[in-house]
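Need a sequence for this fold. Nothing fancy.
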């Protein structure tokens, strides 16, 4: 067991789809990335992965930028497979996960180390100029969304930086293929080398 992981109580109170072992890997990789630059994740949702990445940032005096439009991705809309009525704002008629995300950060006391960016990822990338040590892609799971996230952010990753992609299923019977397609796209550029996966977490390191 790693030292400094988020508390079980906090994790249990936070909605999300992140496996514990994958979370521990995010924590470990964010510790390693700290000397390279800030971390950035796409797909904050309710903050489960931000708990792991943010704790590592707190420990290393680093920053996690966490991007999400907080309107839920395609598969989280009413009638879709991952729709969660708790997250639906009935007054405005849309999904709103930002309230939950803020609550998670406040509970964890991570507001000095996790900076929310409420925006579509491509819009946030347009004027971005800070080199990043780690980029974690876990936003929309359509090929277009995942590819846009990759193309918008990978150029900001420093040499030796970590590119992490969630929900990689090499077997199509186990899950959607878009994240894996983007993983292969990244490898196909020749700019990354593969490190061993942790469950469905793909781990790439940018070549020098
Ligand atoms: Mg995911």
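Here you go.
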């Amino acid at each position: 067991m790693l030292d400094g992981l988020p508390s079980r109580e906090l994790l249990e109170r936070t909605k999300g789809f992140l496996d514990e072992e994958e979370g521990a890997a995010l924590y470990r990789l964010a510790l390693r990335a700290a000397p390279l630059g800030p971390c950035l994740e796409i797909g904050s949702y309710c903050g489960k992965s931000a708990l792991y990445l943010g704790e590592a940032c707190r420990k290393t005096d680093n920053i996690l930028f966490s991007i999400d439009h907080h309107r839920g991705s395609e598969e989280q809309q009413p009638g879709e497979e991952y729709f969660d009525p708790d997250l639906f704002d009935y007054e405005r008629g849309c999904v709103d996960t930002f309230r939950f995300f803020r609550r998670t950060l406040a509970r964890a006391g991570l507001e000095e180390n996790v900076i929310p960016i409420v925006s579509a990822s491509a819009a946030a990338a347009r004027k971005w100029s800070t080199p990043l040590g780690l980029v974690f892609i876990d936003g929309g799971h359509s090929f277009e969304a995942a590819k846009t996230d990759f193309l918008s952010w990978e150029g900001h990753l420093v040499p030796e930086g970590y590119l992490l992609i969630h929900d990689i299923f090499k077997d199509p019977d186990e899950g959607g293929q878009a994240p894996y397609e983007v993983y292969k796209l990244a490898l196909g550029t020749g700019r990354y080398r593969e490190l061993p996966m942790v469950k469905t977490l793909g781990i790439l390191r940018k070549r020098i």
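For context: The helical segments are 8-13, 20-33, 48-60, 98-108, 121-125, 143-153, 178-188.
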